[in-house]
């Protein structure tokens, strides 16, 4: 009997998953060494990533290569991240939220996959959502304590999944749906490779954020640092603007 897709993905991404968790930014975060500026930057990156991911999921929600994994009420993060952006960046946040070069690359890859190879969306959804469900609560508590945030949850809505009663049971359901997806051996191989790519995109994002924060401590604003620009304002955030834990968010 061939190995289940979920097990194959877990095994194939073990090394890059460890690399993501050991990225300096994530190691510092897990130790509670996170600044407001650092947290704002990582949340801004997640906002852009999820806008792109969920745009492509919506585009492919009736495509049999993805439909069994379509759980918008339970999983989708865009609305929560919009609340967080309003908390961290204030009125007019749509024009104020920065986007790093590594985040733009991630976003671009998500749009490429969603439009040209939607069968690979499963790799990105698996990497992001299952990672967020696994590690989200721990990171939420760390951020609340380190940044002295309200216990009511403002600023960290991203980490809360109100429509999932049991993360463990939901992940079991999600993996069983993944394992039932029909795919050829070649598509399966590409999905596994894409999951590794997803982790690498996250690692690059963490590395770049760490570089920007280091530059900032040397009296340079991150928004002036190389590769970081504000996203042009638009009435439809995310469109044309550029997409475990996240890799490290698991």
UniProtKB/TrEMBL annotation:
Catalyzes the oxidative cleavage of heme at the alpha-methene bridge carbon, released as carbon monoxide (CO), to generate biliverdin IXalpha, while releasing the central heme iron chelate as ferrous iron. Affords protection against programmed cell death and this cytoprotective effect relies on its ability to catabolize free heme and prevent it from sensitizing cells to undergo apoptosis. GO terms for molecular function: heme binding; heme oxygenase (decyclizing) activity; metal ion binding. Signal peptide: none annotated. The keyword Iron applies. One of its GO terms (biological process) is heme catabolic process. Heme b binds at residues 10, 17, 126, 175. Its main location: endoplasmic reticulum. It is an enzyme of class 1 (oxidoreductase). GO terms for cellular component: endoplasmic reticulum membrane. The keyword Aminoacyl-tRNA synthetase does not apply. It is a single-pass type IV membrane protein. Gene3D superfamilies: Heme oxygenase-like. It is found in: Endoplasmic reticulum membrane. It comes from the Eukaryota. It comes from Galemys pyrenaicus (Iberian desman). Residues 216-250 are annotated as: Disordered. It catalyses: heme b + 3 reduced [NADPH--hemoprotein reductase] + 3 O2 = biliverdin IXalpha + CO + Fe(2+) + 3 oxidized [NADPH--hemoprotein reductase] + 3 H2O + H(+). Keywords: Endoplasmic reticulum, Heme, Iron, Metal-binding, Oxidoreductase. This is Heme oxygenase 1. Belongs to the heme oxygenase family. Its EC number is 1.14.14.18. Homodimer and higher order homooligomer. Oligomerization is crucial for its stability and function in the endoplasmic reticulum. Interacts with FLVCR2; this interaction is potentiated in the presence of heme.
